[in-house]
Every structure is written in structure tokens, then in C-alpha cells.
Amino acid sequence: MKDRAPSFTRHVLAHGAVVANKFWYGDGSPFLGPSFTAKKTADRQDEIIALILKAAKKAEKTEDKQLANAFHDLADKLYNCHPHHRCGSLACPECARAFQKAKTAAQETVISKLQKSRPKKQLVFVTIVPKGKTFSPGKFSRIDIIKANRWLKDTLKPLGKRIIVGSADLGWESRRGGSYIQLHWHLALCTNNPDRIEKKLKASFKRGMKYERHIDVKVARDYGFLPYVNKVIKLPDLLRRNRTYLPELLLALDQTEPLDLLVFTQLRLSAQEGRLLLRPI
Predict the structure, then answer these.
(1) How many CB atoms lie within 10 A of CB 4?
(2) Exposed end of the chain (fewer CB within 10 Å): N or C?
């Protein structure tokens, strides 16, 4: 198998800081839960590689050489990911976990500082499930996180200038007579009126179905929700109930740079001593 070095086009220094820091690949803080230890993630890595190679063989049988080569290239990349040469791909369970931890730690730091400077405001956990951001099997390659995040920030303008942090998320859904990937967002912000925030968001984002709860705003007691904000996909769940379409989704994730999923307003992203930093503009 070929050895492929990571290549990033945006946030190059920040991406490089994460993949070069072994701390994010270990079991140090932040804790992601008992199902996401370094050992269990490494085991999942082997399972993912086997699944991708199986998809490559299937593509070869249908004489789809381009798809087969794409699967083989991705399997190569994940197979050669090791402590001294990380691939940095979102399709890689170990690298995706490292970025999840690094993003969570950066968000915890900036939110903590924000709460100290504005003690009377409440921290809220916001989920936005927008209309039209769905992708059926065979169309996962159309997922454009950068474009979607740009649209999100434009739509959030009615909230005014405020610090918001969060991430895009891809959920597998079986509704509306079919199964599909739903692009949505999890955000964190501080406010003295959560109800007003929810009202403004409902006015800005259209509901997909009549009885669908497309906006959810909850007051957060601590930072325990942040690892969930940065998970990208529910990999253990997808391995249990959606192995058929998971390889296609992994190809799409491999084309998305990890830090492109981050959402932040009134902040700038940088890196220092192997850590991500979100600082007020």
C-alpha cells in the first residue's frame, strides 16, 4: 500500500498542529466517553479499512474502476496512518477523534472565558436542522461543508454580532419514505434570553416537515455537550446499521478538511504549542 502524506489547503498550521500532537490521539482530556477510547478507536480503524476494501472489490466487479481506485486510495491512506505519520483525514477514525478532542478543548477554553466576562448570561446548546440540506445515497459527494457553513453564518445574522462556536454534523436519517444524510449544526452561545434566541432562529430557518423540530435550544449546565457537537458522524451506530453506504460517506469525508466543519463568529482560529486557539477578533 502507498504511503500518502496529509495535505491541507486551509488552516494549514492549525491542521498540522493537531496531527503532530500525540496528545490528541491518547486518552487525555477532554474525555469522549467509554466507547471512544484510543484502543476502541484503533480497533474501529481496522474495521473501517476492511469495509472500504470490500467496497473496492464490489466496485471492481461492476467494472467501476474509478470508484474502485478511490476506495483503494482511501484504504491506503488509513492503513498508513500511524503515530509518526498521521493521515489527517476525517474518514480516519483515529484522526477524526483527534480533531474532535482538539476542537472541543479549544471551544471549552473560549466559552469559559466568555462566561467569566459575562456571568449573568446563560450558555445554551443549539441544534439547527435546516430544510433542504439532505443527501441521498449516490449523492454524498455533493456535500459542500464550506458552502453550507457560509450559508449558515449569513442566516444567523439576525442574532446580531455575538460569539458563537460549533460544528457541522452529518446524521443518517430514515424518514420521508427514504434514507439520507441530514446536514445540520450544533452550536453554543451565551444569552440572557434563550426563548428569544429560539424565536429568532425559528423565524430564520424553515421547517422541513410540519411536525419536525428543526430548532432546539437548551440551557447547558456544563461543557459535557461539546464532544457531541464535534463528532461529525455517529460512527459506531453507522457500523451497526448502515455499513452499505458508509464507504461512500467516508469518501465524502475524506474530501472535507477537518477544521472546515468548525463554525465560529467574532473569533479567529490559530494554533499554539500543538493546541487550537479561538480568540476574539
Answers:
(1) 17
(2) C
